Amino acid sequence: MKKIFFLSSxxxxxxxxxxxxxxxxxxxxxxxxxxxxPDFSLPGVDGKTYTLQSFKNAKVLAIVFMCNHCPxxxxxEDRIMKLTSDYATKGVTVIGINPNNPASIRLDELGxxxxxxxxxxxxxxxxxxxxxxxxxxxxxxxxxxxxYGPIATPHIxxxxxDRKLRYQGRIDDMENPRKTxxxxxxxxxxxxxxxxxEVPVATTKVFGCSIKWAExxxxxxxxAVEWAKEPVKIDTINAAGxxxxxxxxxxxxxxxxxxxxxCGPCVEEFNDFITMNxxxxxxxFEFISISADDPDNKDKALKFLQKKQASSTNYIFSVDDKYKxxxxxxxxxxxxxxxxxLVEPDGKVVYAHQGLIxxxxxxxxxxxxxxxxxxxxx
Length: 378
Description:
6-stranded mixed β-sheet, 15 strands
């Protein structure tokens, strides 16, 4: 299932790119070997603004175009940090630049992450990972990124002391961080420059997520139209049915939310569940909602779900006895709505919460769960 989703995501990226590929190739041409490093002025997650001059003392400057959401980019985060620390005392500076326009990223492209590519979310990722290099945002205008022309994330550009491009391409040849690369192309280039030698291989191909250029924002509009067409329905469920849901005999991570149309907090947070469903449903994940409305109000519950475009699996408890619902869901539950549970395959409950959820906390739990994971494992 994970492999199918990854391949599907790649196909979606290819399809989305066909309409603007010719223009993108011309407008976003990759910087050629020997070219001078284009200047930039970009905000960093540390509150500072950085230009090329900010790194004038570096013997070697490595610029990595990376982002938050891409599984390939996330797979290299620790290696980028290791590259930074290993060469820090040798006069090598590493910086990261996020080239992605956040408005050009569909929710179903976020299946491997808890965070999108906004500047505020970059700050969270940098703090979570304790990045030891400047992490800069270029997604608003993409002026700098268009000058460098990264193909995918991650894509590294390595410049000598005169800021001439000497290497561009992959960091190494193994995306999976649990496996050992055969070719350490970026390190080889840096070592050669430090030894005043020619870089052994100046250019390599790059594998990763396509750059989310601003012109891809029309893809978001198409997604909204597609989601609006998805059918929404609600079925009844009894206590025995809920017990089966909680046993979770599927191979999916199951998120269950108990809500009601008359519950203010339930209505307030429901959009967050729609977002999570669209983010993760292409992977081994499913969202299930259970309405605590009276069975006679099934039509009212359905209208709410239709308004929210909740094309997930939806139920309404079949008995007008809230205490039977409470016991069926979780005997430890005090009974206040909303109530949310995250269940792994074979019924292990890894999250149970009464009241409003913290969307970021819950997304982080989902993507960090071994059933899902942040990195595509071949």
